[in-house]
């Protein structure tokens, strides 16, 4: 791997940073306070081509590497974790499965709208009784001539209330275990696709999370992605791609902690000198800075492996595990550096502290990543 970003990637990073400082940073606290999904920011990002930057040009994308997308995710998360999360989610959990497993008709139907930021997708896998254990899902898809009838309940589904397309996983043959799971692209408004409970969250409050219920929901057979039985494989591949996004988002959160900690510790005076002069604070900052470099290399490596067309599952799990725990560790330290001021609502580090927690849970918990990594090491 070449550790140096290309001139284009450096330019995109600095342009997105400038954009985030101008358009996101001033409203990030309000987005969090009001649990508001910032449509106006996504419109502007779409105008800049950032919602389709790494999608193939034939589907209206920018044709860059996936790595470039992840740099954008990191810089967005540095100002607003929810915005960074939704950006990475769109590429990993929606665009990736359609591009990697969809047929030409499905790509033409959905990709240009996703690339232009005009369409939003929702990854619809988790169920009340099937979180880490994806195979315990009970949602069924029963074939009836040229249609499938979906029944079941999905929970914790991001974007459900605004989604145009749902990437849904359901069993077409329960007796076959994971090999009996299939994937469907279900358009919004399909009769029988019902929004359930909406959840209030601790962090990433600028993203929306709801239950989705399928009640005799009839979809045409052309909604099936790949073949019957491909669903588990598609879900795992999408989660692998999504995990790189989570890792980039985590790195952005950790970088924001460093930004805030450096600024605050130089300004805050105790015992007649800035607290930055205290070795205890310097050590916090040294550890943060070192871990962030490592986190960045981790997610960039995973994105690079994906860009090479190689299996990126293990690299994605390692990146997600390291980067999310880095974000969790250093949001705690960033609050510590600001003492009581860091604990008060309205401080950026208080928001980052809450936002960071999801990175250890969503798209596979840290324990799930350790299971994957240990499984590979012990093979
Ligand atoms: C804000 C938010 C957004 C989300 N968005 C989506 C979405 O868009 N689409 C979607 O499909 N899902 C989504 N999810 C669901 C998310 O992926 C799951 O919450 C996650 O995979 C964990 O599942 P669970 O919550 O059921 O926890 P559980 O699987 O019940 O796990 C509970 C605890 O047990 C541990 N555990 C479980 N099994 C093992 C094991 N074998 N060994 C060791 N420890 C274990 C876990 O690590 C965890 O600590 C979202 C969740 C949240 C909170």
Description:
By secondary structure, this protein is α+β, with helices and mostly antiparallel strands. The chain has three domains: 7-119, Butyryl-Coa Dehydrogenase, subunit A, domain 1; 122-231, Beta Barrel (Butyryl-CoA Dehydrogenase, subunit A, domain 2), CATH 2.40.110.10; 236-377, Up-down Bundle (Butyryl-CoA Dehydrogenase, subunit A, domain 3), CATH 1.20.140. The protein is 52% helix and 16% strand. The chain has twelve helices and ten strands. Strand 9 and strand 10 form a beta hairpin. Helix 7 runs antiparallel to helix 11 (348-356). The mean pLDDT is 97. The structure holds flavin-adenine dinucleotide. The site of flavin-adenine dinucleotide (FAD) has 20 residues, from strand 1, strand 3 and helix 12.
Distance N terminus to C terminus? 26 Å
Beta-strand share of residues:
15-25%
- Estimate percent helicity: 40-55%
Instruction: Give the total of domains.
Output: 3
Task: Give Rg in angstroms.
Answer: 21 Å
Key terms:
Butyryl-CoA Dehydrogenase, subunit A, domain 2; 3 domains; binds flavin-adenine dinucleotide; four-stranded antiparallel beta sheet; 12 helices; 379 residues; four-stranded mixed beta sheet; alpha+beta; Butyryl-CoA Dehydrogenase, subunit A, domain 3; 52% helix; Butyryl-Coa Dehydrogenase, subunit A, domain 1
């Amino acid at each position: 791997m070449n550790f140096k970003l290309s001139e284009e990637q450096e330019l995109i990073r600095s342009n997105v940073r400038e954009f985030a400082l101008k358009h996101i940073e001033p409203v990030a606290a309000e987005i969090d306070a009001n649990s508001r999904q910032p449509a106006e920011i996504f419109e502007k990002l779409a105008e800049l081509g950032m919602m389709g930057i790494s999608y193939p040009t034939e589907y209206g994308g920018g044709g860059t590497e996936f790595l470039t997308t992840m740099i954008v995710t990191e810089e967005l998360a540095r100002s607003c974790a929810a915005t960074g999360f939704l950006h990475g989610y769109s590429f990993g959990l929606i665009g990736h499965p359609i591009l990697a497993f969809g047929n030409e008709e499905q790509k033409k139907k959905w990709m240009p709208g996703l690339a232009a930021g005009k369409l939003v997708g929702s990854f619809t896998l988790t169920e009340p009784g099937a979180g880490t254990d994806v195979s315990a899902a009970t949602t069924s898809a029963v074939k009836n001539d040229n249609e499938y009838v979906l029944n079941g309940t999905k929970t914790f589904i991001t974007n459900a209330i605004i989604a145009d397309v749902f990437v849904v996983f359901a069993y077409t043959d329960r007796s076959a275990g994971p090999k009996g799971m299939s994937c469907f692209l279900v358009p919004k408004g399909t009769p029988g696709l019902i929004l359930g409970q909406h959840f209030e969250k601790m962090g990433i409050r600028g993203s929306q999370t709801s239950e989705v219920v399928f009640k005799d929901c009839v979809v045409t057979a052309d909604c099936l992605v790949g073949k019957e039985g491909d669903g588990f494989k598609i879900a795992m591949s999408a989660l692998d791609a999504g995990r790189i996004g989570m890792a980039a988002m985590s790195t952005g959160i950790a970088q924001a902690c460093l930004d805030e900690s450096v600024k605050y510790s130089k300004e805050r005076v105790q015992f007649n000198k800035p607290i930055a002069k205290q070795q205890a604070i310097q050590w916090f900052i040294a550890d943060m800075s070192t871990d962030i470099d490592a986190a960045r290399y981790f997610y960039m490596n995973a994105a690079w492996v994906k860009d090479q067309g190689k299996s990126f599952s293990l690299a994605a799990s390692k990146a997600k595990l390291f980067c999310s725990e880095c974000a969790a560790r250093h949001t705690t330290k960033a609050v510590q550096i600001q003492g009581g001021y860091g604990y008060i609502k309205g401080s950026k580090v208080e928001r980052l502290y809450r936002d960071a927690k999801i990175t250890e849970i969503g798209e596979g918990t840290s324990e799930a990543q350790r299971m994957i990594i240990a499984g590979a090491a012990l093979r």
